[in-house]
Design a protein that fits this description.
Layout: E1 2-8, E2 14-18, E3 29-34, E4 37-48, E5 57-61, H1 64-90, E6 96-102, E7 108-114, H2 122-132, E8 135-140, H3 143-150, H4 161-164, H5 174-179, H6 186-189, H7 204-213, E9 220-223, E10 226-234, E11 239-246, E12 249-256, H8 257-270
Parallel strand pairs: 7-8
Antiparallel strand pairs: 1-2, 1-4, 3-4, 3-5, 6-7, 9-10, 10-11, 11-12
Amino acid sequence: MQLIEIVLYNNPYLAFARYNNEQFLPNQKVIVETNSGLEIGMVKNIVESNSEKDLVKIKRIATDADKATHCKNCQYCKKILPEIKKEAENLGLNMKIGFISTNLDQTKIIINYTADDRVDFRELIKILASKYKTKIEMRQIGSRDETKVIGAIGVCGQETCCKLFLNDFDKVSIKMAKTQNIALNPTRINGMCGRLLCCLKYEDEFYEQMQKKMPKINTKIKTPDGEGVVTSTDYLRETVTVTFTNNDSTEVKIYNINDLNTLKDKKNDKN
């Protein structure tokens, strides 16, 4: 079954609509019907899927009037965000409000927040519903989801991957940082969201392969110049540093791992 992949504005999650041979183009703005009402989104792609769960319905291609309304809604949300944060702060709620959005006709304000524990925000909803004369929806999201919507500059100097192209977040573990020999310092291994860097996943397969290929530190190894002890390895350059000790003298040489493996293979052939 083919589905239309849709990016909803101010929403970290993709929406999907049934594809019925409609002539929708990538990057085309459309009006979709969601659980929160009518929202504006952008067509991303046509994908294959067997799931019909939580499908949205495309009502129409967005008009210039729809786009203008969306821009006004964005300005409205930007204006009231500090007020909503202040109300939550006055109630002493242990939560962080990241961003807010509204449906197209402003009949609902969606408040996206992060929190470590369960939050009783019933009083906050009462205050906000009375103040803004509309329905209030509280939506708990993860810190990565918040960064995906708001955006940030990563440690690489580029906009974060989650904002640019990531649709799903792969599992990232501290083991990946250890395998890549990165200092386990939060400033080195955590992203702007405070969680482990997503990019640790990108190179993990390479480092796992190199870890199997490379000799371990402090192990003895055969080289073209005799037997020595491995003192360091460079996965990116694929080199091994070997220290030779002869009586009172010490010599250090660097070898390409492929040369050492060739030597090892020749030895095995002779056996």
